[in-house]
């Protein structure tokens, strides 16, 4: 699933006073939707024109419904939101071009409660970006990116407001959680104008940074998604085609090389993964992956498994909040959408059928033998190894 984190308070558990009918009015502003790690809640900016407000979705009941959380003043289009696992919504606002303020919103009967958490200064050219949801559903983190260093802040879930957690050399972006505890965070880092490399940051060791991916010395290697249950990694790199990014996959800590399937390469569209099926313990080849496909004609959905040599493509539901969705452990893809008649909708899509067991075994054996000879289609692939530099190897990718 996707994840989002925010702090809790004793004043409200996020459920009191909410009514499904509060989300009955249609919304026109189609900002993205962020979903908590447990799939229970989501949040987005809703509204029309300049009248924007935070909106929380409840997803773990019999039917999804939306709860608007308006305040006296409308939100700016650049306001960032993250839902908490207890139903509150973290709001990050840019004030006076340098201060970033943080508040928790929650429903209080017909009104909206707001708990102010504090602020973080980001002067000059620095910018602050909320990280993807923390797996614990309690804490929320942000990156403050400066010219030469990146500061990691705990902005919700701490004891005394925003807290500086670590300072990482270089300019960082992205943000992928590598475990279920919220200890290990992967960032895409650029040092001194060099290539982008994914690194691992240990939040329990003072932000200790270690290399995570290096496919070639000069390639840009980014980590897009990681599933802690199976170890599946979704990677974007220009190593196989210098100057042109390709979508690939690997397994965290595995001896198998990263592979760049041809079926994930479309000449006239961009393909971006946005959700991985959870619960496939030690079975990365059978994990279902949801992909957003963007082309001149619009956006639609792709589904794929690492053991498959084909990518399924299907039309997105009308009003899909493109790039948002989650897999259930049972293999159902849930896609959120908004229309005038359905202001809070979820469309369910079944996962592609799993490959036969003998096909999985054959594919794994083929992957294990990759690297024995020179590369044919995809040169210079690597093994993703956590917390140390990934060694290079040559081989023809499977899939």
Q: Mind explaining what this structure looks like?
A:
The strands form eight sheets. The protein has a four-stranded antiparallel sheet with strand order 1-2-3-4, with no helix packed on it. A four-stranded antiparallel sheet has the order 5-6-7-8, with no helix packed on it. Mean pLDDT is 82; it is low at 1-30 and 357-399. Helices cover 3% and strands 41% of the residues. The chain is mostly beta strands. The protein has one helix at 357-369; strands spanning 34-35, 41-48, 51-58, 65-69, 80-83, 89-95, 99-108, 111-121, 127-130, 140-145, 149-156, 163-169, 171-177, 184-190, 196-202, 208-211, 221-226, 232-237, 246-251, 270-276, 289-295, 298-304, 312-314, 326-327, 332-337, 345-350, 381-382, 392-393. The two termini are 24 Å apart. It is globular and about 55 Å long. The chain is built from one helix and 28 strands.
């Amino acid at each position: 699933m996707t994840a989002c984190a925010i702090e809790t308070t004793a004043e409200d558990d996020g459920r009191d006073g909410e009514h499904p009918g509060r989300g009955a009015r249609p919304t026109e502003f189609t900002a993205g939707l962020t979903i908590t790690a447990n799939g229970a809640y989501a949040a987005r900016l809703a509204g029309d024109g300049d009248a924007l407000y935070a909106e929380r979705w409840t997803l773990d009941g019999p039917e999804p419904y939306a709860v608007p959380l308006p305040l006296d003043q409308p939100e700016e289009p650049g306001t960032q939101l993250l839902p908490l696992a207890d139903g509150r919504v973290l709001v990050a606002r840019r004030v006076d071009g340098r201060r970033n303020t943080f508040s928790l919103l929650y429903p209080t009967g017909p009104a909206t409660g707001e708990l102010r958490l504090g602020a973080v200064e980001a002067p000059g050219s620095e910018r602050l970006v909320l990280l993807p949801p923390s797996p614990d559903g309690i804490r929320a983190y942000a990156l403050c990116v400066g010219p030469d260093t990146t500061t990691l802040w705990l902005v919700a879930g701490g004891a005394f407001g925003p807290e500086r957690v670590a300072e990482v050399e270089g300019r960082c972006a992205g943000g992928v959680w590598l475990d279920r505890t919220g200890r290990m965070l992967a960032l895409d880092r650029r040092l001194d104008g060099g290539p982008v490399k994914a690194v691992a940051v240990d939040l329990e060791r003072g932000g200790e940074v270690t290399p995570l991916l290096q496919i070639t010395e000069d390639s840009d290697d980014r980590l897009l998604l990681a599933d802690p249950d199976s170890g599946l990694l979704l990677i974007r790199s220009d190593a196989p085609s210098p100057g042109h990014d390709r979508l690939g996959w690997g397994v965290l800590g595995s001896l198998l090389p990263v592979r760049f399937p041809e079926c994930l390469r479309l000449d006239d569209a961009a393909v971006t993964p946005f959700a991985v099926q959870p619960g496939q313990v030690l079975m990365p080849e059978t994990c279902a992956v949801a992909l957003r496909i963007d082309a001149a004609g619009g956006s639609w959905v792709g589904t794929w498994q690492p053991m498959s040599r084909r990518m399924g493509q299907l039309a997105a539901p009308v009003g899909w909040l493109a790039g948002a969705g989650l897999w259930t452990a049972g293999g159902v893809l849930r896609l959120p959408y908004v229309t005038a008649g359905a202001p809070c909708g979820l469309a369910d899509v079944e996962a592609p059928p799993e490959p036969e067991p003998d096909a999985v075994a054959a594919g794994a054996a083929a992957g294990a033998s990759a690297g024995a000879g020179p590369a044919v289609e995809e040169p210079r692939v690597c093994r993703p190894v956590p917390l140390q530099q990934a060694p290079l190897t040559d081989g023809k990718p499977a899939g």
